[in-house]
Amino acid sequence: MKPVSTRRLTWLLAGLSMLGPFCIDTIFPAFLQMGAQLNVGPLAIQQTISVYLIAYAAMSIVHGPLSDAIGRRSVIIGGMVVFTLASVGCALAKDLPTLLVFRALQGLSAGAGQIVGRAAIRDLFHGDDAQRLMSQVSMLFGIAPAIAPIVGGWILGWGQWPVIFWFLTAFSAVLLLATWFWFPETNPPASRAPLVARSLVRDYAAIFLNPRFQRLAAAGSFNFAGMFLYIASAPVFVMQHLHLGERDFAWLFIPTIGGMVMGSFLSGRAAGRMHGDRLTAIGFAVGGIGAALHIAYSAFADPFTIPWAVLPLFLTGVGVALVFPILTLAILDMYPRHRGSSSSLQAFTSLVVAALVSGAMSPWLSHNPFHLALGSASLTLLGWTFWRWERNVCKRLPPCPQEIVAVEPPNQL
């Protein structure tokens, strides 16, 4: 394998990870225009997000094991080709059914870079170096949801909604070229696992039924869901509670993602200086403080105004970003020969929780800021509860031998 430029790899993996958030958030400001031009209502336009997320979640369990079998690079390149063509289809769509078909194709391919990229990081780096790179990628990735709706608003100032999908076409084409020239194959043939349906089902069952995987995946998924509840409720929160316009989503996204960027930076700086257990505990504590402040403000504020209504989300973002790299690396370290599969299953778990939050909790709670704050705090608390359960069973990271369910020979765990 040729020497890898860490800086170049960081930017490339961050760009690949940004594709998913850009695919969702850039079209938020265009919802009204899309509904008017396609002659459908708001609920129908919301399907462009739902269809994308369902396809993304379904394919997330395939990207990882596919990369374990045929290599990381091939899966990412294939995903970028499909996404680029699907974006062209979205831009040319003249009716909602056609748009939904190509949105589903975007969802099927968008996760390849993010999911496989996590496994590639662990292929190349170990210990503190892996945490440092994971944090750097997370820091750059965290910018995407903040700037995506802003970019979408700017694009609408230049043209109609299809231009947003032409932008996504260009973005994915650049990533495709960058992957082709700069991304190394981090999973050589000697390390690959055969892609056999029966073995895949068996391995997935073994990973998913592993109590330690369940605790770590749940801790990360529910902690992130506490922040994602506000992201899923963005249209109601921004336009109804904050009384802002369609191009003012930055008031919600900038403090949230700014916190994630800060947390990722701090996580990278702490690598090698502070044990992962302590850093994770600090992350949950910071997120808990943010949740408490949000509850307090939502309970007593009258009127509900910026910037105070959104500042606690900065702490929520910091907490999420401090916790995420530690839990992700702990899961990947459990199965060295099945990092793609474990990354896929972790991503699938997070997506299922996010889908439930978006489809059930957000519509139920978003009409009331206080209820929204309580819901977010409950999810953060649930994530911390799973983390404390994990710490009671396994006193320190990384792997806890008595909790390993055999997918690989014991000497590989």
Description:
This protein is mainly alpha-helical. The protein has helices spanning 6-25, 31-38, 42-70, 72-92, 96-124, 127-141, 143-158, 162-182, 197-208, 211-232, 234-241, 250-270, 276-300, 312-334, 339-365, 369-393. Helix 1 (6-25) runs parallel beside helix 6, helix 1 (6-25) crosses helix 7 (143-158) and helix 13 (276-300) packs antiparallel against helix 14 (312-334). It is globular, with a radius of gyration of 21 Å. Residues 401-413 have low confidence and may be disordered.
The main β sheet shows up as: none
What class would the helix/strand composition place it in? Answer: mainly alpha
Basic shape:
globular
Element order: H for helix, E for strand: HHHHHHHHHHHHHHHH
CA radius of gyration: 21 Å
Q: Please count the beta strands (DSSP E, at least 2 residues each).
A: 0
Overall average residue pLDDT: 82
Q: Low-confidence segments, ≥5 residues, pLDDT <50?
A: 401-413
End-to-end distance: 24 Å
Strand content: under 5%
For this structure, the quaternary state is single chain
The total of helices stands at 16
Amount of helix: over 70%
Secondary structure elements and pairings:
Blueprint: H1 6-25, H2 31-38, H3 42-70, H4 72-92, H5 96-124, H6 127-141, H7 143-158, H8 162-182, H9 197-208, H10 211-232, H11 234-241, H12 250-270, H13 276-300, H14 312-334, H15 339-365, H16 369-393
